[in-house]
Specification:
Strand content: under 5%
Helix content: over 70%
Largest sheet: none
Shape: elongated
Distance between the termini: 28 Å
Number of strands: 0
Number of helices: 6
Radius of gyration: 18 Å
């Protein structure tokens, strides 16, 4: 077995886990609210009623829950596309997933309390993506 085979196997495992985290986050954290939007609209549920039982740290989000649920459809599409690209070993999927993770980490503080789970999933996926790509490569060559 060549020395690079172990690194390659480790990197592939890290990429699979990162893609799995991104896929799970896309389906659960972004996809369920997007699907829930259509269910609530069909049932005629008022968005104002939702804000009484579910709140964010930013009051604007509480007042516009339906809009946020609709926008989550964009995030679910991007996150799932990125995870599929990573699983297929495509550079575009890797870069898209890096962007998704970075944007999520920047926005998670505005989405508290749900942002904590987003941060854990995206932070974990980001670390795995970077470890898979760079591994033990030194920052500076001696």
């Amino acid at each position: 077995m060549a020395p690079t085979d172990g690194k390659s196997r480790t990197s592939r495992t890290q990429l699979k886990w990162a893609a799995g985290l991104q896929f799970a986050q896309g389906v659960l954290m972004e996809g369920l609210p997007f699907i829930g939007l259509f269910v609530m609209l069909a049932m005629g549920i008022d968005a104002g009623m939702l804000s009484r039982g579910f709140s964010f740290i930013v009051p604007f989000f509480d007042d516009h829950l339906y809009l946020m649920m609709a926008i989550s459809g964009v995030f679910v599409a991007l996150r799932i596309l990125g995870s599929i690209g990573v699983l297929r070993n495509r550079q575009w999927g890797y870069v898209l997933s890096l962007i998704n993770c970075t944007v999520t980490l920047a926005l998670m503080m505005f989405m508290l309390p749900a942002g904590m789970v987003d941060g854990i999933l995206s932070g974990g996926a980001l670390v795995l993506l970077l470890m898979a790509k760079y591994g033990r490569t030194p920052i500076l060559e001696d």
